[in-house]
Amino acid sequence: MLHSASFSWDQDNDKVKIYVSLEGVDQEKIQTEFKPMSFDVKFHDVQGKNYRCAIPKVNKEIEPEKCKVIVRGTRVIITLFKASKGNWSDLQFKEDKLKPNLNKERDPMAGIMDLMKIMYGEGDEEMKRTIGKAWTDARSGKTADPLEGYR
Question: Cα-flanking dihedrals φ and ψ of residue 143, to 5°?
Fold first, then answer.
């Protein structure tokens, strides 16, 4: 199944609209699955191909029974109704990774290491190489003490 990459979205206080650019969609060949925290819309046999627009965990809860999909020319509009009014900062749920952990007994360097792991996991190849080299150098003692001369 091909994943549809060409989309945009907009919102008001009550709903989120996702606009998918896809030509040749037949309303009868759309399969939808709306859940309180996710949705999955499949477009079958669109000019011989299948497409999908899905978010496994949306930003906030939606009302599945009200959600709908409408085909308008070369656009498909997926409407998600918000369970509670308000603004979404993003379509997908994102954990607040930079929120400090207030565990007093935890090693202070652990927070920095967690942040480095997140950067490594989400970084491009150049970022991964740079962080990997820094970790290797630090473990082997190749790097100078950055606080040397200040103690």
Answer: -90, 145
- Are 77 and 18 contacting, i.e. CB atoms less than 8 angstroms apart? yes
User: What are the pLDDT tens digits along the chain (151 aa)?
Assistant: 445 558 899 999 999 999 999 999 999 999 999 999 999 999 999 999 999 999 999 999 999 999 999 999 999 999 999 999 999 999 999 876 565 555 556 666 677 777 777 777 777 888 888 878 877 877 777 665 666 666 5
Task: Classify 25 as helix, strand or coil.
Answer: coil
**At residue 38, what are phi and psi to the nearest 5 degrees?**
-160, 165
* Strand (E) or helix (H) holding 126: helix 125-140
Which residues contact residue 109 at a Cβ distance below 8 angstroms, ignoring those fewer than 6 apart?
A: none
- Work out the number of other CB atoms within 10 angstroms of the CB of residue 102: 6
Token pair, residue 30, equals 């759309």
Predicted TM-score (pTM) of the model is 0.63
Q: In the chain, where do the E strands start and end?
A: 2-3, 7-11, 15-21, 30-35, 38-46, 49-55, 68-72, 75-81
Report the length, in residues, of the chain: 151
Q: Residue for token digits 């994102």? A: 94
